[in-house]
Design brief:
The chain is an all-alpha fold. The chain has a domain of 104 residues. 68% of the residues lie in helices and 0% in strands. It is built from six helices and no strands. The protein is rod-shaped. The N and C termini lie far apart (113 Å).
Length: 165
């Protein structure tokens, strides 16, 4: 008995299957690169939010000179307000700038763009006192700042600057 077997042609991949595999591989690689880049960006942002410090070497003479300079600035600001050259809001904004500049110069911490929460997280007690003096009147509507006495705020600021150690 003779048996014949008919063989099939070898299995061949279609070019569409090969192309689809390459395209899916490229898409997977792009997604992987994107995810890794996002993770690295998040990591950079987390380190960028930390306060930047630079070492300050203050001698007692330099600190005394800085205190005198900044107390003079606050005093000049108060005189400008009392003479009618400044509105209360402008006065508080300038007071904020003076105080933040003083803290930056004395501590090396650039608090010029910090919020109250960020400043409190630093744990500098005297800075909390100063910020409470000007923060609400600086940003509130004029009627909410009416009960705040700018001259008293300036005196508090001068007292805190003077007692800074």
């Amino acid at each position: 008995m003779v048996t014949t077997v008919k063989l099939q042609a070898p299995f061949e991949y279609s070019w569409i299957v090969t192309l689809s595999t390459i395209v899916l591989g490229i898409i997977a690689a792009v997604i992987l690169v994107y995810v890794v880049k996002k993770l690295l960006d998040l990591r950079e942002k987390a380190t960028a939010k930390r306060p930047r410090y630079h070492k300050i070497h203050l001698t007692p003479e330099n600190l005394a000179r800085m205190k005198k300079d900044y107390i003079g600035r606050v005093s000049a600001l108060l005189n400008g307000y009392l003479s009618g050259n400044l509105t209360k809001r402008d006065g508080y904004q300038k007071l904020s700038g003076i105080i933040r500049s003083f803290v930056h110069e004395v501590t090396g911490i650039n608090v010029e763009s910090f919020t109250v929460k960020e400043v409190k997280a630093l744990g500098i007690r005297k800075l909390d006192e100063l910020m409470e003096e000007y923060y609400v009147p600086e940003f509130a509507e004029d009627d909410k700042a009416e009960n705040k006495d700018f001259a008293a705020s300036c005196r508090v600021a001068m007292g805190v600057i003077n007692s800074w150690s």
